[in-house]
Specification:
single chain; alpha/beta; Rossmann fold; Dihydrodipicolinate Reductase, domain 2; 2 domains; eight-stranded mixed beta sheet; 12 strands
């Protein structure tokens, strides 16, 4: 039984709670929130809501769907006690990413902009496609759409896709952001040849439940791994035989 703590009881976090409760291999024991959260200090269906980050030392793995500031606070506890952390929080600064890398020297840390299976397969395959096509004169672009109010733009997923293409080809491709309605997440990649031949790839998340179920599955894989900085692609494509 994997003892799990969740940081961030927002829209995705509430789905993480449901996914954890539906998984017989997981026991959700704590939800960490800010001090002024209305549920802090209560116990809901056997789960303690707390603002005490030291509770992290009592669990087997921590899932972060919170804020960059909260991640920074919680990493210290996790690193000191060797507790694995899955960080799905986006918008980390380069300085904050450096803190994540330091913590990964003492505990396994999975840092990912997108936990879903489909996107992690794309993270692996897009650089390979771009390398072949760009050598033949192709170009590309990314368009990402998320809910109105999402703070970071381009999304962390779009930035990761850009980074993969750049590492494989040495070329930059633009990323365009749309913020509208309550869109959970759509990423479209257009690869365009010199004569107009086009490949269009669209990854669409219909429900936040997709993020939640994937995060619980990946969190379980972190238990027992040696300290290191991982990403979803590391764990998912390993099982696909890549």
């Amino acid at each position: 039984m994997v003892r799990l703590a969740l940081s961030g009881y927002g829209k995705v976090g509430q789905h993480v709670v449901a996914a954890a409760k539906a998984d017989p291999e997981v026991k959700l024991v704590a939800i960490i929130e800010r001090k002024d959260h209305p549920l802090v200090g209560s116990i809901q269906e056997g789960v303690t809501f707390t603002a005490d980050a030291s509770e992290i030392r009592k669990v087997d793995v921590l899932i972060e769907f919170s804020t960059p500031a909260a991640v920074m606070e919680h990493l210290g506890y996790a690193a000191r006690h060797g507790v694995p952390v899955l960080i799905a929080t986006t918008g980390l600064t380069p300085e904050q990413r450096a803190v994540v890398e330091k913590a990964a020297e003492k505990a396994p840390v999975l840092l990912t902009s997108n936990v879903t299976l489909g996107m992690n397969v794309l993270f692996a395959l897009l650089p390979q496609m771009a390398k072949t096509l760009f050598e033949a004169g192709w170009t590309g672009a990314i368009t990402e759409t998320h809910r109105a109010g999402k703070k970071d733009a381009p999304s962390g997923t779009a930035l990761r896709l850009q980074e993969g293409v750049h590492q494989a080809t040495g070329k930059e491709i633009p990323a365009f952001s749309i913020r509208a309605g309550n869109v959970v997440g759509v990423h479209r990649i257009d690869l365009i040849g010199p004569s107009g031949e086009t490949i269009e790839i669209t990854h669409r998340v219909q429900s936040r439940e997709d993020f939640a179920m994937a995060s619980v599955a990946l969190a379980k894989k972190l238990v027992g791994l040696p300290p290191a900085l991982y990403d979803g692609q590391d764990l998912i494509t390993r099982e696909l035989g890549s």
